[in-house]
Amino acid sequence: MSNQLARRLKCRFSLEEMPVLQVGRLDAWSGHSFRVGRIEHVMMMNDASLYTILLPAKGLTSIDSFLKAFLPRVAEVWQRHGSDFDPNNQEVVVLKRANRSLIGSMNDAIKAVEFYAVYDREDHPGYTPMDIEERLNMVPYKTIGYQSPDRWLPKLLGKG
Known about the structure:
By secondary structure, this protein is an alpha+beta fold. It has a single domain (3-156), classed as 2-Layer Sandwich (Nucleotidyltransferase, domain 5), CATH 3.30.420. Helices cover 37% and strands 13% of the residues. It is built from 5 helices and 3 strands; from the N terminus they run αβββαααα. It has a 3-stranded antiparallel beta sheet with strand order 1-2-3, with helices on both faces. A hairpin with a 5-residue loop joins strand 2 (39-46) and strand 3 (52-56). The two termini are 29 Å apart.
C-alpha cells in the first residue's frame, strides 16, 4: 500500500520495517489512491496477475470501510474466473509497497485511467469506473510475459 493510501485510510503499516518476503503472491494486492480531475480513485493491483480493481474513493475513510468495499470485489473477480474467495474470512496485513516493477505497472495503469477518463469521455459519455477497470485488465504487461491480467489470472487460479 502506498503512503498516500495509508494516510487516506488512517491506517498504519502492520510491520513497519519488514519488506515483503515473497513477491508476486496471488493473495497480495498493492494499492494507491489518485485523483483524476475532481474525482479520487483507489486502485488495487494483484501482485501476481496485475489484475486491477478500481474503486471510487468517496466514503473510503478507514481501513474498515475500505475492506468492506474491496474484499467483496475480490470475491466477484475470483467467482467470475471460477474460484472461491470468502470476503468475510480474510486476515489482512498492510505493508509498504516495495516492488518497483509493480509500482511501474501501477503507474502505467493510472496513466491509462487518466486517459480513459478524460479523452474517452467524449466518445463514451456514460463510462463508469467498472468500464475503465475492464479495459485496464485487457492491457498486456511485460511483467507477466505480455499477457493481459484478464487472461493471466485464470491461469494462476488453475482455471485457464
